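User: Can you help me understand a structure? I only have the sequence.
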Amino acid sequence: MTCLLAACGTAAPSPQARPAMWLVEDADTRIYILGTMHALPRGTDWDEGKVAGAIRAADELVLELPPAELAAAGDMFRKLAPRDTPLRMEARLSGEALARYRALEASGGDFGGDRYDDWAVMVLMGQRVARNAELSPADGVETGLTAEFEAAGKPIGGLETAEGQLMLFEKLDAATQRRLLTRAAENSEDAVREVTALTAAWGRGDVAALKKVINEDVDMVPAARKAIITDRNRRWSAWVKKRMEQPGTVLMAVGAGHLVGADGVPAMLEADGLKVSRVQ
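Assistant: Let's start by predicting it. Here is the structure, written out as tokens:
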């Protein structure tokens, strides 16, 4: 589940990273769909090649969260994450899962997890793994794109709100949340290596490898996959289809995990009869 959040190592991808990108087009509308990593190693070069052309051509940028919503995400997390009554981690995890959770916690200080819902603890774990892997949101694709479009005076929109995004986790039933937390703890020993592999596959534009890493992670919890991946992809695909009714050029940039596999956004759009092509 850590890989899903990285979708939320010390070996950086190639300095000439070329992430996968698709183009949906008709006679008067072009929508580039770029797979992103929300956090990357410092100095990662991802905005050359076809991506550079898409940035120049686009009239607007559309992200999962627009800048104002991204800025509000921390406050929204602090609002939604706390439990009504604290629950010790020893009552949630046991054996190897608990030991690995404690080891990850020891790598950078107390999570304060007793005070938070299971989904929120998992988010904090994912942030710690990213930090341990020397990945930073300040170097992520969304941060870079936002700076480029703001400098050019081009509008930036979003597909979701911070509250809506976090409520996807908050609304998961208790059993699904506990299963997510348990898997994240059990896999935390190898999480840096897995995130490194995910980042490298993204940098190569290797959608088969991305699909394998991400699906192996989230397919073990079908209820989470439906809420966090498939249902959102369906809503985003509907947005693309509606936006195709207006002329212009758009760059849509969302987590790479949403663009791979049979329920990825490009596959959904193609199944609905739109012209979709891989351009990088």
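Now, to help you interpret it: Strands lie at 21-25, 29-36, 60-63, 156-158, 248-255, 276-278. The chain has one domain: 2-278. Let me know which part you'd like to focus on.
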